[in-house]
Known about the structure:
Elements: H1 3-6, E1 8-21, E2 24-37, E3 41-46, H2 52-59, E4 67-72, E5 75-76, H3 82-86, E6 89-92, H4 104-109, H5 124-136, H6 152-166, E7 170-174, H7 182-199, E8 202-206, H8 210-216, E9 219-223, E10 228-231, H9 233-238, E11 251-254, E12 259-262
Parallel strand pairs: 3-8, 3-9, 6-7, 7-8
Antiparallel strand pairs: 1-2, 1-4, 4-5, 9-10, 11-12
Helix pairs in contact: 5-6
Amino acid sequence: MALEEKHSILQTRNLAVGYSKKGDNLIIADRINFSIKKGELVGLVGANGIGKSTLLRTLTGMQAALKGDVFLNGKNISDYSAFQLATRLSVVLTEAPASKNLSVLELVSLGRQPYTNWMGSLSEADKKAIQAALEATEIATLANRKCFELSDGQMQRVAIARALAQDTPLIILDEPTTHLDIYHRAYILKLLKKLASETQKTILFSTHEIDLAIQLTDKILVMAKNETYFDDPCKLIEAGRFDTLFPKETIDFDGKTGRFKIKS
């Protein structure tokens, strides 16, 4: 096994993602190759409809790969049981939780389900993990509030706290800044950066906030029309990987500032 594979938390090899319909494969993106290490914050970017959510569902085992492989801690993800995956991978989806009538504490506590006994009782270790997650996301003061009382930004922090309480080496988030204003978008991404650095958890998130991702992430996975690129932001800028993400007659990428500009 190569040295890179030994230290990889999440790796793909010649991965193709998409859907199977009546025996035919509809490939949305293929030839996807990357390796993410412990403690890295990685952004997944691309235009709407390019396949970001499909890729995330495949990486989390919710959807089967059409070709190629996904490796989690060096083991093919298809070889994990549902219980094993729940202790190694946590997912934060865009959708709101099924019941917003739960309190913040109750919802975050659900992250401990893979570790509780058959009665669902919380041990002292579970309670410590929950409290640590509340404090890390700065929502300890909201613990007894009902989720329906929270703003979108607060609710997103609750979802992240639940993933932290689950205490998995890898956290995957699907567009965690959706519906947030610019301040809370930056706040959430800075929080993810801090969590990756301080907890050494590997965090992969999809986002439309490409400018912010360039500033804050260790690596970026760029899904373009005919290719997928993976590298640190500066190298991707130098290689012109952001230049063709959107139609140039409307928006252009400025490699000097690392920002997109609307054409007048």
